[in-house]
Amino acid sequence: MINRTIIYIDGENFLHRVEEILKDAKYISKKEDITQLNIVKLFKQLFPEYKSPEIRYYGTRVRIKDIVDKDILKHAKNIVESQRRLKRSLTNQGVEFIAAGSLRVRETHCRKCKKTTLVFKEKGVDVRLAVDFIEDARPGTKQIIVSSDSDLLPALKVARYSKKSKIIYVHHAEVPNYAMIKASNESRVFTPLQIKQIYRVKKK
Question: Is 196 helix (H, G, I), strand (E, B) or coil?
């Protein structure tokens, strides 16, 4: 008998897919435009049989205190504001926002052009999510994972085979992770149409 249903959303992983879909549809020009998503509506469509699941969104904190480059700092502040608005939107829907990791500036080197650029790298979310996933696992619990990060595979296997939870993997219809599918009891997909339906246009 299932007596608890928990949805775990890997925020950066999920937003990456959402960004691709909304950019293809020309709804947004950049990721920071995603400040309001009707997450509850999406999961009601995907899981109509579960009336009151716990929904957790694992996000990041943006570290800006050590940034000295003015352009990078401006970009970071835009990310902070975008995340603040998204967090408020999710909280208003009853979604728990967990600041589990950090988004930091890192140097990357292009082998072809030999240039060094600064990019934002997320770190720590997968560890916190995996720990929570294993701690929550037990018979009678349905755990729904919204992430295609292969680093979470060990946690899924422990939860399913050792702790006897039922695992459902949710992914973009066109971008499955077959190892995650194999590690789960079942999988369900979200489509570009569903993502466009839950996007709320940014108010000026």
Answer: helix
SS3 at position 1: coil
Q: Which of 194, 169, 188, 177 is nearest to 18 (CA)?
A: 194
What are phi and psi for residue 8, nearest 5 degrees? -110, 115
Give me the residue spans of the domains in the chain: 4-198
Going by C-beta distance under 8 Å and a sequence separation of 6 or more, which residues neighbour residue 188?
Answer: 46, 47, 168, 169, 170
**pLDDT by residue (tens digit) across 44-71?**
999 999 988 999 999 887 776 766 677 7
Asked whether the beta carbons of 118 and 103 are under 8 A apart, the reply is: no
Burial pattern 168-187, b for ≥16 Cβ within 10 A else e, equals bbbbbeeeebeebeebbeeb
Tell me the pLDDT tens digit for each residue of 117-152. 555 566 678 899 999 999 999 999 999 999 999 999
Class level of CATH domain 4-198: alpha beta
